[in-house]
């Protein structure tokens, strides 16, 4: 099973295991747990918990 994670650096995109290895080096460029956020507003408790856990993400609507 491939983990749901995306790492973005410039125009390069990595998914799955490659993105996991990048997330340990540069967490602010790796996005995980996005499935739980899709369709939710920024004031949703799940989104607020996500932002507390990952403060380096800059989420926008």
Detailed description of the structure:
InterPro entries: ATPase_NBD. The chain is of the alpha+beta class and 61 residues long. The protein has one domain. It contains 2 helices and 3 strands. The chain has a 3-stranded antiparallel beta sheet, covered by helices on one side.
Structural class: alpha+beta
The biggest sheet, with number of strands, parallel, antiparallel or mixed sense and barrel status, is: 3 strands, antiparallel
Number of strands: 3
Share of residues in helices: 25-40%
How many discrete structural domains? 1
Strand content: 15-25%
Return the string of H and E elements: EEHEH
Offer a quick outline of the entry.
This protein is an alpha+beta fold. 30% of the residues lie in helices and 20% in strands.
Notable characteristics:
three-stranded antiparallel β-sheet; alpha+beta; 3 strands; 61 residues
List the SSEs and their pairings:
Elements: E1 5-9, E2 12-15, H1 17-25, E3 30-32, H2 45-53
Antiparallel strand pairs: 1-2, 1-3
InterPro entries: ATPase_NBD
């Amino acid at each position: 099973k491939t983990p749901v994670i995306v790492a973005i650096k410039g125009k390069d995109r990595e998914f799955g295991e490659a993105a996991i290895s990048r997330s340990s080096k540069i967490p602010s460029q790796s996005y995980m747990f996005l499935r739980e956020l899709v369709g939710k507003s920024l004031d949703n408790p799940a989104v607020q918990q996500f932002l507390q856990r990952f403060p380096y993400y800059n989420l926008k609507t």
